[in-house]
UniProtKB/TrEMBL annotation:
InterPro entries noted in UniProt: Aldolase_TIM, FAD-bd, FAD/NAD-bd_sf, OxRdtase_FMN_N, YqjM-like
Gene3D superfamilies in alphabetical order: Aldolase class I, FAD/NAD(P)-binding domain
Domain of life (superkingdom): Bacteria
Protein name: Salicylyl-CoA 5-hydroxylase
The organism of origin for this protein: Streptomyces nigrescens
Renumbered residue ranges of the record's region Disordered: 748-775
Residue stretches making up the FAD-binding domain: 2-337
NCBIfam families linked: PRK08255.1 (NF006101)
Domain spans labelled NADH:flavin oxidoreductase/NADH oxidase N-terminal: 401-737
Length: 775
């Protein structure tokens, strides 16, 4: 096999070394346009997991790297003159030059041809002459650009500018420092990558690049508008380094910073639909990027190389191997990129967190990517987590999720909400809840959640999604719902039950979910109404009637009647459903509201009718009972609701008296492209809460009690709504308490169930242990 590698970075070099080591008969050539000792970064961080893979695949490379590594455990967070330290994190770093030197030596020892200062021929030309072409040519990959039709790249440029610099001494820990300048917030990310020589005096002057004092990578980052305000867009490398050193003079102990062909850059996220084309395959930053704040760029490239080499070894031919490589790596990379985007977005919105209490701010920073969690951080540094909880007023021995929360005139005993879930089980077809709803909601109320929400309860027959949807537009509905609320209040005392009122709009008159979600009924369809005459799926769903201004009063009155009935039925809380493309959501999104009257146009116009409905409902809903609003904070589609729109919507509803905003996303248009993943919708709630100071309910693939604890303690959410976990386990909240060893007032077991409050034994564990071993 003849292999061509485009790009002599760590990923390309390591792929070449592995392939040659596995089969010495392979002829491998690496093209690198720069000189051997040219590099545009400073330090490289690798995880223990990556190092384990290297050790297993190539012990010689591992031993060479091991001799170079700087290791440390602590993270220092410096903000407003206070330094908080969290330990137990475990980092390993070395200089990028040293990493490349190790890989150069290994490649030469194996007989790989390294062509430095040489532009690689085009990938298409190489593909004709070689059996395999590995494009490891970085974030600006010419291979990816030349074959964009095949790879399908999507490039997203983000809102901060950053520069890679170095300090000629070794920091004691990974350091995050926040500076509030006259121009705005500036942040420093710094870590050591070269150790001080034994016996070096820390007070002695620096001895030059990677000299006796050691060395550290220093990245300085800020929002684009801050960068321009500071005049850094007009500064060269030396001037930029001097400016950064002045801002962070205390952290640098008055020492200077140096660059290495350093320039201000806006981070670019790279995603590709496909990673291979014929016998050409993308690797590392050419295929995917992850923001430097989680330190995964080189890690991902090295792991790509390991996987690619393994797949070529295991599979019968190149095409199958490249498909297996992508199948193996894509889920891992997608998970890392989600974490990286969460971390990147946190730093973009850093200014919204500055006024948090010191320990909460530090905890928020440490858990920003959602990979480090409350429980995980407690394992690393229990004392630090205890300090965060003490600052928050969390009683000793109480997980954050089991602290009470006051919402309007209602005090919830914990932070768990059973999210509204459409059940499509009104058996009589006229909207009346039955035994199913009594058992479904009653079971979850007895399962320990602080608040249990109904499904979307429709305000009229025409406002139903399906014939199986429940309503509150007939006397028998109120009677049936009263039966449910009475049961909850009697059998699960302390649990609140809320009703979510809504109207289906253009998404109505469809089949039950399991018979064909969003598909029209085969017969018996009812007419639909919407802000504009736009079908949900053209050619599939019916075209709705665009509501005239004169017809809006009728819809508004339907909500008022339903709210009045809900109050008499005994609900503790009312939520107005303005999300997921239903009628009120349809007014809010520019993708579904094309009106030219006072109820369309800009966001003020699009908000007008939902606010009118809110005001009318608030006027009849009892003053002591809270009202919330669920919104879709993004449509996940071009031209739709933006994050800034979501903040403005939340602010408007809060000003009109909403006690909390329930922050969901999407389901507005069928061609949406959600960024699915664990807790993927929570950043939208976080932004609203920390921008406006408005209580929020976070939703979206929150699946563990650890997630709930993390979100609440970090101040990203006040309440967490979980749906599918409560379908899997109606007693999810009580089991979360048991698993954490908690038995306090935030999660009392119903008296008949108290005998089950401990995890049942799964088998005998007291068998005699072996005492003798016979050789």
């Amino acid at each position: 096999m003849r292999v061509a590698v485009i790009g002599g970075g760590p990923g390309g070099l390591y792929a070449a070394a592995l392939l040659k080591r596995l089969d010495p008969t392979r002829e491998i050539t690496v093209w690198e346009r720069n000189a051997p000792d040219d590099t545009f970064g400073f330090g490289v961080v690798l995880s223990d997991e990556t190092l384990g893979g290297i050790e297993h695949a190539d012990p010689e490379v591992y031993r060479a790297l091991q001799a170079e590594f700087v290791r440390w455990d602590d993270i220092d967070i410096v903000h407003r003159g206070r330094t908080l330290t969290s330990g137990g994190h475990g980092f390993a770093a070395l200089g990028r030059r040293r990493l490349l030197a190790v890989l150069h030596r290994r490649c030469r020892d194996l007989g790989i041809e390294l062509r430095f200062r040489t532009e690689a021929p085009p990938a298409a030309e190489l593909a004709r002459a070689y059996d395999l072409v590995i494009a490891a040519d970085g974030v600006h990959s010419t291979t990816r650009t030349a074959h964009a039709d095949a790879f399908g790249p999507q490039l997203t440029t983000h809102r901060c500018r950053y520069i890679w610099l170095a300090a000629d001494f070794a920091f004691d820990a990974f350091r995050f420092e926040i500076a509030e300048t006259e121009h705005g917030v500036v942040q420093l990310h710094a870590y050591p990558f070269a150790r001080p020589e034994p016996g070096h005096d820390p007070a002695a002057p620096s001895a030059g690049p990677e000299g006796s004092a050691g060395a550290s990578t220093v990245i300085v980052e800020m929002r684009e508008e801050v960068w321009r305000s500071a005049g850094l867009d007009r500064c060269d490398e030396r001037e930029s380094a001097e400016w950064c050193a002045k801002v962070f003079t205390d952290a640098l102990r008055g020492r200077s910073l140096r660059g290495n062909n350093s320039s201000w850059t806006a981070f670019r996220t790279v995603v590709n639909d496909r990673w291979s084309y014929g016998n050409t395959v993308l690797l590392g930053d050419a295929a995917h990027t992850a923001h430097f704040s989680i330190g995964s760029g080189t890690k991902l490239a090295v792991e790509d190389a390991l996987a690619l080499a393994a797949c070529l070894e295991e599979q019968p031919d190149t095409a199958t191997a490249l498909a297996a490589y992508e199948e193996e790596r894509r889920p891992v990379v997608a998970s890392t990129q989600r974490a990286a985007r969460a971390s990147l977005a946190w730093f973009e919105e850093l200014a919204t967190y500055l006024d948090q209490p010191p320990h909460q701010f530090a905890f928020n920073l440490l858990t920003r990517s959602r990979r480090v969690t409350h429980d995980n951080l407690r394992l690393r540094d229990a004392g630090f987590v205890t300090a965060v909880e003490d600052e928050a007023g969390t009683p000793a021995g109480t997980p954050p999720m089991f602290t009470p929360f006051r919402l309007g005139g209602l005090t919830l005993r914990n932070r768990v909400v059973v999210s509204p879930m459409d059940m499509y089980s009104a058996a009589d077809g006229n909207g009346t809840p039955g035994d199913f709803h009594l058992v479904h909601l009653g079971a979850r109320a007895m399962g320990g959640a602080g608040l249990v929400m109904t499904e979307m309860v429709c305000v009229s027959p025409e406002g139903r999604i399906t014939p199986g949807c429940t309503g509150l537009y007939a006397p028998e509905h109120e009677t049936a719902w009263r039966r449910v609320t009475d049961f909850v209040h009697t059998s699960a005392p302390g649990t609140a039950i809320g009703v979510q009122l809504g109207h289906s709009g253009r998404k109505g008159s469809t089949r039950l979910m399991w018979d064909g979600i969003d598909q029209p009924l085969p017969h018996g369809n009812w007419p639909l109404v919407a802000p504009s005459a736009l079908p949900y799926r053209p050619g599939v769903n019916q075209t709705p009637h665009a509501l005239a201004e004169s017809e809006l009063a009728l819809i508004r009155e339907q909500f008022v009647r339903a709210a009045t009935s809900a109050a008499r039925a005994g609900f503790d809380l009312l939520e107005l459903h303005c999300a997921h493309g239903y009628l009120l959501s349809g007014f809010l999104s520019p993708l579904t509201n094309h009106r030219t009257d006072a109820y369309g146009g800009d966001l003020t116009g699009r908000l007008r009718f939902p606010l009118e409905v809110f005001d009318a409902v608030r006027a009849v809903w009892p003053a002591g009972r809270p009202m919330t609003v669920r919104i879709s904070a993004t449509d996940w589609a071009d031209g739709g609701t933006t994050a800034a729109d979501a903040v403005a919507m939340a602010e408007a509803f809060a000003e009109h008296g909403a006690d909390a905003i329930d922050v969901s996303t999407g389901q507005v248009v069928p061609d949406e492209r959600p960024d699915f993943g664990r807790s993927y919708q929570t950043p939208f709630a976080d932004r609203i809460r920390n921008t406006l100071g408005v209580p929020v309910i976070a939703v979206g693939a929150i699946s563990s009690w650890d997630d709930v604890n993390s979100l609440v303690l970090a101040g990203r959410a006040d309440l967490c709504a979980l749906a599918r976990p409560h379908l899997y386990d109606p007693h999810w909240t009580l089991h979360a308490a048991a698993e954490q060893g908690y038995a306090g007032p935030g999660a009392p077991w119903p008296l008949p169930y108290q005998a089950g409050s401990r995890t049942p034994p799964t088998g005998r564990t007291d068998a005699p242990k072996p005492r003798l071993t016979l050789r």
